[in-house]
Amino acid sequence: MRSEEDALAGRRVLVLISGSIAAVKLPLVVSALVQRGALVRCVLSPSAERLVSAVALASLSRAPCHVEADQWSHRAARPLHIELAEWAEVVLLAPLSATSLARWVHGLADTLLSSTLIACEAPVLAAPAMNSAMWAAPAVRRNWRELQGWERVLPLEPGSGLLACDRVGDGRMAAPELLLLALESLLLAGCRRDWRGRRLLVSAGPTREPLDPARCLTNPSTGRMGVLLAQAARLRGATVDLVHGPLAVDPAWLEGLQGHPVVTAAEMESALERLQGDADAIAMAAAVADHRRRTPLTTKLPKQALAEALRSEWEAVPDLLAGLVQRRPPAQAILGFAAQSGEVLQEARAKFARKGCDLLFANPIDRSGAGFGAASNEGWLLGPGERQRHVGPTGKLALAHELLTALAEAMALRAPVPVPVPADP
Ligand code: CTP
């Protein structure tokens, strides 16, 4: 992706770090932000100062790192918390401790970090981290719930795993790579939660059809587009089921999604069938292999026998998307993809008519900067009533947000019209 397509490039990111041991991960996040062209300033809470080096953060951010003592400096011409709050275009609040959460929610401006946060009008990505018993405590639950309704906050639930206190449970801060992705998403789509209460089923990645234990038929899909679509929907409030073949994306991007790993098209088909009934919408981004061996061999073929084995005993894989369209409940909206080489639009129109889905995104796979594994993409979005528009070239996360907006519109079109209730005589 070119740097001008990176949503983080040139943006002013204020990083607020509070007192949780996950603070030790923030220097790497700051370094990654700077490498992607963001302008970064950091603030440490008094507890965070004990956990992570202000000198390291200053060096990595190429700017002074602010600590509690700075708030009362006679050298500052304006109050530091106001100056920082007004400078920020976007705030990364990570890790968010139980205390800083409580201060924020209750409006206590008694530290540099909390007063900056309260004074700031920029959108905030909030990523808590704490022990699982603290995370489950009624006071923390109540404060976190309160935050869900705040318009300029994107709350990023902690995940589950081994915590520094040796407990295994909820409270682990979102991985650094996911913080970066969520921050990029916030810059692209804001804090909107328009998918809240919706369930999206996404398929992603390739399938692998075995010939024998050593060989298979597959394709170069990495799953990037489908996974980003799933994560963008989750950040917009959806519950997401992700059925995926073998992926080549950062595993942190799967956090917060209900993952259903599969290998073959048959496994993908049965996972989709099982999950379809609960979904409000489906995005079929998987690159399903087109053919499979009728019965895969259980022992490895000698290479002399390979040419013959490739000629016989193969069958077409059923069209999973067409099956989903046939079985769908009336209100379910479906987005398909089309991987095209050469002329895109004409072939895509024919495919759209054949598949019967509500939307089809057709992208070239034979141009640089689009298709399999690329960070960016472009193509034609076909919709109801002959609608078509060209999208991109743009980053795949930006494209994911555009497709989600179109899918939400398709869902609204399919929603049953409420039957008017006759008035009482
Ligand atoms: N698809 C599917 N099942 C298949 C093949 C494709 O569900 N067996 C879905 C893909 O997930 C995608 C859409 O159909 O959403 C289009 O896939 P594509 O590979 O572009 O088209 P094909 O139908 O396979 O046609 P062709 O390979 O001839 O272009």
Attribute tags:
Rossmann fold, 2 domains, 425 residues, 15 helices, 8-stranded mixed β-sheet, alpha/beta, binds cytidine-5'-triphosphate
Write structural notes for this entry.
The protein has 425 residues and is α/β, with parallel strands linked by helices. It has 2 domains: 12-189, 3-Layer(aba) Sandwich (Rossmann fold), CATH 3.40.50; 199-414, Rossmann fold. It is 34% helix and 24% strand. It is built from 15 helices and 20 strands. The protein has an 8-stranded mixed beta sheet, sandwiched between helices. The protein has a 6-stranded parallel beta sheet with strand order 3-2-1-4-5-6, sandwiched between helices. The model has no long low-confidence stretch (mean pLDDT 95). Cytidine-5'-triphosphate (CTP) binds at residues 284, 286, 288, 290, 317, 319-321, 336-339.
Summarize the amount of helix as a percent range: 25-40%
What best-fitting shape do the alpha-carbon axes yield? Answer: globular
Share of β-strand residues = 15-25%
- List how many beta strands DSSP finds: 20
List the domain count as a whole number: 2
Gap between N and C termini, in Å?
65 Å
Query: CATH superfamily assignment of the largest domain?
Result: CoaB-like
Order of the strands making up the biggest sheet: 13-12-9-14-17-18-19-20
Taking all residues together, what is the mean pLDDT?
Answer: 95
**CATH fold topology of the largest domain:** Rossmann fold
Distinct ligand kinds: cytidine-5'-triphosphate
Poorly predicted ranges: none
Number of helices: 15
**How much is the radius of gyration in Å?**
24 Å
